[in-house]
Design brief:
The chain has 208 residues and is an alpha+beta fold. It is built from 5 helices and 10 strands. It starts with a helix and ends in a 5-residue tail after the last strand.
Length: 208
Amino acid sequence: MIRRLQIIAVAIISISLFGGCSSNTLPPATSVASLTTSVDNYDYLIGPGDSLSIFVWRNPEVSGSFLVRPDGKITTSLVEDLEVSGKTPTQLARLVEEELAKYIRDPIVTVSVTGFVGPFSEQVRVIGEAVNPRSINYRERMTLLDLIIEVGGLTEFADGNGAKLIRVVDNQQKEFDINIDDLVRRGDISANVDVLPGDIIIIPEAWF
């Protein structure tokens, strides 16, 4: 009986150990060829606060520079309250062409973004024990190292290896372990990971 209980106890411990081996750690930042589809197919989306240059070929009177309002809209010479937030510059150009076609024959429109803020949903947020915790505009192929440089590094009280990355995957919020101490204080480049739009980095305070 005792022998049987010992065997059961060992089995339970083994299951616990093997179950704990599954890691929520993200894969390291890698070469372009092996990056995720989300990174490879990234297109900048216009957001409130962006500065736009809209050029209408042969129609300078309706061309100009526009600031996206907090409600995500702009007003042009011929079109009022045009919803632009969340669109790529190319999508917006086609939309402006569609609207201007009511007044101008076969308009050809080019949209350029001259001041970048982007939608809030696309920004990456760093909270906790960073020198300057804040929201940062996502840039294509941004990594954790880029992000930590942007916020000025870690405070002396930070537990960088206890940090978490919160990401929405398949409409579900998931939490991943990240090792910022290893990356910035020990120079372990394998701890660098890819960052995606909307990610949240939480850096806790160390327990001394």
